[in-house]
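dumping this here so i dont lose it
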């Protein structure tokens, strides 16, 4: 694998992780737990750092956000006052993260295609 292909591949992996994490946050946005207890779901984010030699290294990390208290007396985990605790997840931010991850994936894929075309041209010159 050429260095350019490795860099593009790291971008593909980071974008895929970003989309997966954001989708999980949205899917669990309505999880509830009893007030004062451990949260039913801890939102996650992706931390990206430059990789040695180019590219990016991405890691999913748990985000310590505030918990929202929501009135839901029908919930089985509701307290005596009818409140439940939910994770503070902003749907607009998560959709924006998904769009960004999709575009990053597309750009990285184009870079991978360019690296592949370059490699093919190099092999054609040698034959």
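and the seq i came up w/
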């Amino acid at each position: 694998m050429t260095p350019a292909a490795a860099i593009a591949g790291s971008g593909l992996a980071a974008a895929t992780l970003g989309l997966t994490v954001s989708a999980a946050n949205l899917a669990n946005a309505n999880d509830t737990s009893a007030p004062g207890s451990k949260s039913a779901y801890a939102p996650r984010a992706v931390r990206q750092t430059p990789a040695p030699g180019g590219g990016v290294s991405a890691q999913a990390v748990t985000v310590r956000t505030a918990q929202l208290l929501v009135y839901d007396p029908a919930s089985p985990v509701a307290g005596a006052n009818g409140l439940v605790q939910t994770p503070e997840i902003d749907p607009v931010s998560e959709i924006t993260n998904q769009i960004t991850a999709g575009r990053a994936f597309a750009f990285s894929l184009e870079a991978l295609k360019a690296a592949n075309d370059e490699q093919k041209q190099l092999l054609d010159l040698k034959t």
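The two ends are 20 Å apart (CA to CA).
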